[in-house]
Design a protein that fits this description.
Elements (H helix, E strand, L loop, with lengths): L4 H14 L1 E4 L5 H16 L17 H4 L3 E2 L6 H7 L2 H11 L4 E8 L8 E4 L2 H4 L6 E7 L10 E3 L12 E2 L9 E2 L9 E2 L7 E5 L4 E3 L11 E7 L5 E3 L5 E2 L5 E2 L2 E3 L8 E4 L2 E5 L5 E3 L4
Parallel strand pairs: 13-16
Antiparallel strand pairs: 1-10, 2-3, 3-12, 4-11, 5-10, 5-12, 6-9, 6-11, 7-8, 14-15, 17-18, 18-19
The chain binds 2-oxoglutaric acid (AKG).
GO molecular function, one term: dioxygenase activity
Organism: Kribbella pratensis
Protein name: Ectoine hydroxylase-related dioxygenase (Phytanoyl-CoA dioxygenase family)
């Protein structure tokens, strides 16, 4: 499906006002199902580069059996084609005023019983500048509060990038979060397979655990940066134009893979390339 221009205007107004917009049915149910099957096959093949915290097929922690995958477009053509799909480009271009650069793919399996991801802002990690990053978060399953759908804080895209604090790792697989001015500020976004949520790099978002016993919550996510960006964190190089060609940008200092921060005696650190660490003091 392509989106008609008056519908795009509605999404653009909503994105500017709230920091996110949901495009229902941007991909068909069949496409979502094929992608779901594809990634389950890939996961069964064993560990992949950029798996979050490693892959162990026999671990009791469901997230060790089904860890998040990242940067699949660098070795998987299905992921690359999805990342630069003209439908995503059309919506992004309408939201941002010009075609973005694509810098990341991620696949969350989130099996039954697994932890969620604490509230955070993506540009804390990507460091896109000038401008920000924008996510395209596509549901591959029906996602609702029970299986830990995405939760967003409307209007928080107008906030600065906030100081972080330690997250509760009994409910989050990442250990860093941001404080909210009031409880209940985060609202759940229920979606059907093929729906895509577009959201701004400063929007506070995250998810609760999947408390079902039998439903995965799989999501395919692309991260993009505004076409006027001149730099982005090292982890996101090379950036791609939406025709798939590479471009060279400057390296922004700090940042790293989304959620990969940990506490040390010197303060929180970002894991950059797996071996290199940069200390980031709270401001
Ligand atoms: O899917 C989730 O639970 C979190 C995803 C997320 O934080 C992101 O796409 O940036």
């Amino acid at each position: 499906m392509s989106v008609s221009s008056n519908v795009v205007d509605v999404h653009q107004e909503e994105f500017e006002r709230t920091g996110y917009t949901l495009v229902r049915g941007l991909f068909s149910t069949d496409e979502a199902e094929r992608l779901r099957d594809h990634y389950m096959d890939v996961r069964r093949r064993g560990p992949q580069a950029h798996d979050f915290a490693g892959h162990t097929s026999t671990d009791r922690d469901p997230l060790k059996r089904y860890p998040r995958m990242a940067q699949m477009h660098r070795w998987d053509d299905v992921s690359l084609q999805w990342m630069i799909d003209p439908r995503i480009d059309q919506v992004m271009t309408a939201l941002l005023g010009r075609s973005p650069y694509a810098v990341q793919t991620m696949l969350y399996f989130k099996p039954p019983g697994s932890r969620g991801q604490a509230l955070h802002q993506d540009n804390f990690y990507l460091k896109a500048d000038p401008g920000t990053c924008v996510a395209a978060w596509m549901a591959l399953d029906r996602v609702d509060e029970a299986n830990g759908c995405l939760e967003v804080v409307p209007g928080s895209h107008r906030w600065p990038i906030l100081c972080t604090e330690k997250a509760d790792t009994t409910v989050s697989f990442t250990d860093v979060t941001v404080p909210l001015p009031s409880t209940g500020a985060a609202v759940p976004v229920e979606m059907e397979p093929g729906d895509v949520l577009f959201f701004h790099g400063a929007l506070v978002h995250g998810s609760n655990p999947n408390i079902t016993t039998d439903r995965f919550r799989r999501a395919l996510i692309g991260h993009y940066i505004q076409g006027e960006a001149e730099r982005v964190a090292q982890y996101y190089h090379p950036a791609l134009r939406m025709d798939g060609t590479e471009l060279t940008l400057e390296v922004a200092e700090g940042g790293g893979a989304c959620g990969e921060w940990t506490e040390t005696p010197d303060g929180p650190v970002a894991l950059l390339t797996g071996t290199e660490r940069t200390t980031r003091k709270h401001e």
